[in-house]
Amino acid sequence: MKSLGLVQKGMVKSKFRLALCLLSSLFCAFACSTSEASASYRLTAGQEKFSQVVASLTAMNINVIRAWCFAEDNGSAAARHDRQHKHNWLNIGYYDSGAGSETKTSIWHNPTQAGIATAAFLQGQFLHPSAGIRRIWPSRLKHSAKTLINYIWKSGWASSGYGHGSWIFGAYRGLRHKSQPKTTYVRLWRNPDTHKRMTVGCPFGC
User: Fold this and answer.
1) CA separation (Å) from 163 to 81, 145, 149, 153, 169?
2) Cβ atoms of 46 and 88 closer than 8 Å
3) Any bridge partners for residue 189, and if so which?
4) Long-range contacts of 166-171 (CB under 8 A, 24+ apart)
5) Which of 43, 96, 145, 146 has the fewest CB atoms within 10 Å around its CB?
6) pLDDT (tens digit, 9 = 90+) per residue, 28-40?
7) β-bridge pairing 98-99 and 94-95
8) Taking the model in full, what pTM does it have?
9) Nearest to residue 100, comparing CAs of 120, 129, 74?
10) Does 190 have pLDDT greater than 70?
11) CA–CA separation, 6 vs 129, rounded Å?
């Protein structure tokens, strides 16, 4: 009977070790898949700075803006554009027919200035955004990432509609989220139709 008890105890220990191994394997699989997913959703330094500036000046969800940037430009192409100091991360002025004259300005060579110009565009203070695009910024008041993304893809910003928003939603879920920066509203432009001078009061040292 004593030997039988020892056998039973050994079996319990073996089952316990087996359960631990299974749990460990499941945890490793989950951790690896999570790290791989987050690695595939990475932004460049320029995209991160740009997103922070746009979020600060518009009070829009910074992680939606980051996901929007990713949907517009990512991977090796984004890395190349960052090295080339091309920071028009939401591709303002790029159409299916080609690049417009508004893409030629030096504003887009700096992520801070590019972010300020983009914030001004979203607020209707720079260039001439369409009615659909002008509806994006007020949607931030609903405090819903899903609502904001819906307004973006329905705005006509991209002819693809970002796959009915699924490209932005996917990036939003895949990116490691960042805290919302403090909102700083400033009057961004002396003249909404020129690129020559920004008004005093820019909080980013531009």
Assistant:
1) 24, 17, 12, 8, 10
2) no
3) 198
4) 167/71, 168/64, 168/67, 168/68, 168/70, 168/71, 169/67, 170/67, 171/41, 171/66, 171/67, 171/68, 171/70, 171/71, 171/74
5) 96
6) 443 433 333 445 8
7) antiparallel
8) 0.74
9) 129
10) no
11) 79
Residue matched to tokens 């887009």: 108
CA distance 201 to 206: 9
Each domain of the chain, given as residue ranges in start order, spans 1-37, 45-174
**Tell me, what DSSP letter sits at residue 138?**
G
Which whole-number Å values give the CA distances from 154 to 131, 148, 167, 175, in the listed order? 11, 10, 13, 22
d(CA 66, CA 50): 9
CA distance 10 to 192: 79
Q: Helices H, strands E: what count in the chain?
A: 8, 2
Angle at 111 between CA 105 and CA 114, to 5 degrees: 45
For tokens 């949607």, what's the residue? Answer: 139
Rounded distance between C-alpha atoms, residue 68 and residue 142, angstroms: 18
The answer to whether residues 105 and 85 touch, using CB atoms and an 8 Å cutoff, is no
